[in-house]
């Protein structure tokens, strides 16, 4: 989903240096100051969008720190954006760039930062730097994080203004829209409990996606196809139907020379699919088949032998697949299917946005397929209408895009967990006896291997190195001690990966492509390697130790629906080894804590 943000009618230079004599720390602002607040917050949204396409989609955060110079200039002194979960927060980047000029300055954030028991780095960075005021585009949409950072800022004496709540004007509304758009996937996911779904297709001027013969290469221009690669790179998954696989044999890769590669998903009830297909090559990108339970068991085994994941559903339809992908943690899904599956997805109500590339070509043909099949509508008044429609010329083609459902504004409708509990004390954000964790933004997301908790562990040479995450360490050690230049290079690449997601992608891809480079004892050693990393992580951070001990009496389950070794699986069929190791570590920490308490008690008794 490409986005472009401009500063509109303010005509501010690219450096965002503005002459004004209005104190930034004043909450009661004039219309000019409101315009500057809107412009800088919009700039934060523009920065946040820079991370899209380089790693698995995640909440996008940007931060701009601005202050007033001695001669009355409103000037930006620091900027930053979150590259990926597990990397340096945008706020900390901006503070490091601004240095001492943070004192008394205003920080502009497109979205309220994640602030919880185990991750308070974003708030702490701004508070400790001496920032006086924070302007926030939107509150965090996830229940357990909503309002937490705002409350923390205010408790530290900072002035906090939220667009649309504390600040109102036309330019503020435009900035607020930018903040909604840049995190639209997260907002839709929070509001509707399904991933943000985009339907994309290319058609001729007379509404055909192929000739009567089925030939479709190429309807749109090369420039339009490049835009499609960008759309894929901003998605967690790309979905097609079985007919597309049979007729087009697509690759569904992003082809942008690096960065995030979305999972490829094929929906097929019958599994009437060819044995030779580009999608069965999973050396670079994983493929998942969603099918009806019991369909062609022999072909399922064939796909499994190729490394293709097969997921069976009792009744296969777009809605249940989206609910399943929601549980897998997907934020954004791109539908590149034919007319029949597109019609089913639209009828299910799970498509939120449409991108239609219209080529200046006419192909004709009574039986030539159209982008959307039968929807059961008999009158034009029943037609689905796009809102917030955008028109853009891409080479010779016209790109028409718009939303079928407005971007959710969660401000008035979703209270925080604390607010909900105050209304109804019986409401609990999670099950008391079973605690699930998976994504880093979950209530217990700090238990994830992808959480940002650097730890000092030995590298391949035995020298101690600050590993950015448990995932970095675990993936790299698949190739530790292998006397091969490629294995050593892979070890270093994983060790220096910018994010846990990139480390995981590098490690998994090399394991698929070159299994001969994986250490021979890996299967017997991997749980031990994981446990040592977890032990180091939790012993390094006392707050993590406290959080783990607070779960005493609860079963810990890594809620990955597809990893049947480390996770619990979709229906509880997984081995849940990550949850097991954490419970084992919890028992060890409890014994140490009890032993320490006993020793202290003896010492106190001796003193008496």
UniProtKB/TrEMBL annotation:
Reactions it catalyzes: 2,5-diamino-6-hydroxy-4-(5-phosphoribosylamino)-pyrimidine + H2O = 2,5,6-triamino-4-hydroxypyrimidine + D-ribose 5-phosphate; 5-amino-6-(5-phospho-D-ribosylamino)uracil + H2O = 5,6-diaminouracil + D-ribose 5-phosphate
Gene3D superfamilies: Cytidine Deaminase, domain 2, Dihydrofolate Reductase, subunit A, YbiA-like
Protein's UniProt keywords contain Metal-binding: no
Residue ranges constituting the CMP/dCMP-type deaminase domain according to the UniProt record: 35-156
GO BP, sorted A to Z: carbohydrate derivative metabolic process
GO molecular function: 5-amino-6-(5-phosphoribosylamino)uracil reductase activity; hydrolase activity, hydrolyzing N-glycosyl compounds
Domain of life assignment: Eukaryota
EC number of this enzyme: 1.1.1.193
Record bears the keyword Oxidoreductase: yes
Pathway(s) annotated for this protein in UniProt: Cofactor biosynthesis; riboflavin biosynthesis; 5-amino-6-(D-ribitylamino)uracil from GTP: step 3/4
Keywords: Glycosidase, Hydrolase, Multifunctional enzyme, NADP, Oxidoreductase
Protein name per UniProt: 5-amino-6-(5-phosphoribosylamino)uracil reductase
Species whose genome carries this gene: Penstemon smallii
Lineage: Eukaryota, Viridiplantae, Streptophyta, Embryophyta, Tracheophyta
